[in-house]
Amino acid sequence: MTSLTSIGIDLGGTTIKGGAVNEGRIVAREETTTPQSEDACIEAIASIARNLASKSTNQRIGLGVPGVINPDGDSVAGTPNLSFLAGKPLASRVSEILGAPVLMGNDASLAALGEAKHGAGNSHPDFLLVTLGTGVGGGLILGNKLHTGPGMAGEIGHLQVGHERICACGAQGCLEAVLGAAPIIENLKECGVTSSSLPEASQLARSGNADAVKAFANAGKYLGEALAQVSLLLDIRVFLFAGGVSAAIDLLAPSALAILEKRAFGRKAQDFLIARSTLGEDAGIFGAAELALQNT
Ligand SMILES: [Zn+2]
Predict the structure, then answer these.
(1) How far is the CA of 172 from the centre of ligand 1 (A)?
(2) Using H for helix, E for strand and C for coil, what is the string for the chain?
(3) What is the whole-number distance in angstroms between the Cα of residue 77 and the centre of ligand 1?
């Protein structure tokens, strides 16, 4: 193998996934359940990296974590699903164990970087990748480059979209409080849809069930409000969606596009692209591996 292979690790609340990436392909994989204590979690990340290192020509490691990265690049400020890691040195500790540099980034930001390099974002110099899962996150690509600011650019889940609900972050009216996986199901119930499974409710909507269609249209309006703010601020017109809830993006898109058209100064719905990302669950691995490469 002559081209450079690098290691990307995606730390999730339930699973740690790693891959050795070479020219847009994952050539080796490792995966383990996320241990729920600081030391065991750090050891598990190092163990995955060690197993992949023999298949990699670049010993730098990229690590994606679910939370806001502190400006030191070494710890995470807010990790709702991994609270035992909050504020603790992470990259430096993994690096010490391995004797190799570890570069860390927010998981949604790195998913955007992965899509920019190898996925649906490849032909778009400016886009926002929105992760729709338990929470709502985002990664921003501007001029073909990942833009994180000091660490939290792209956090679309906490833009205010005009409703009464209190978000897990403590603020009122956040997008995440109506578009996270749980609130979407809640909204479906309020609209009279009894199914508590998102795929089932999506099928109902696609087959024309009026209550289901209405519930997704409601959620899509809130999404549109947030996308319009992003578009007005940055003139972003391409929005890619990853994560479990993105399987229903076709049901959210029509009302989101209608709001975009109404808010974005004369632009038409067709001026915007709302689409699913193409790397799926692997986007984070690709992005983390790219982060390691970029800093070589
Ligand atoms: Zn919030």
Answers:
(1) 7
(2) CCCCEEEEEEECCCEEEEEEEECCEEEEEEEEECCCCHHHHHHHHHHHHHHHHCCCCCCCEEEEECCEECCCCCCEEECCCCHHHECCCCHHHHHHHHCCCEEEEEHHHHHHHHHHHHCHHHHCCCEEEEEECCCEEEEEEECCEEECCCCCCCCHHHCECCCCCECCCCCECECHHHHCHHHHHHHHHHCCCCCCCHHHHHHHHHCCCHHHHHHHHHHHHHHHHHHHHHHHHHCCCEEEEECHHHHHHHHHHHHHHHHHHHHCCCCCHHHCEEEECCCHHHHHHHHHHHHHHHCC
(3) 15
- The pLDDT tens digits of the residues spanning 122-175 come to 999 999 999 998 889 999 999 999 999 888 899 999 999 999 999 988 999 999
Domains of the chain: 5-111+281-294 (3.30.420.40), 123-277 (3.30.420.40)
- Residue 187 CA to ligand 1 center (angstroms) comes to 18
CA of 136 to the centre of ligand 1 (A): 9
| CA 6 / ligand 1 centre spacing (Å) | 34
pTM: 0.91
pLDDT by residue (tens digit) across 85-124? 999 999 999 999 999 999 999 999 999 999 999 999 999 9
Judge whether residue 1 has pLDDT over 70: no
* Alpha carbon of 123 to ligand 1 centroid (Å): 31
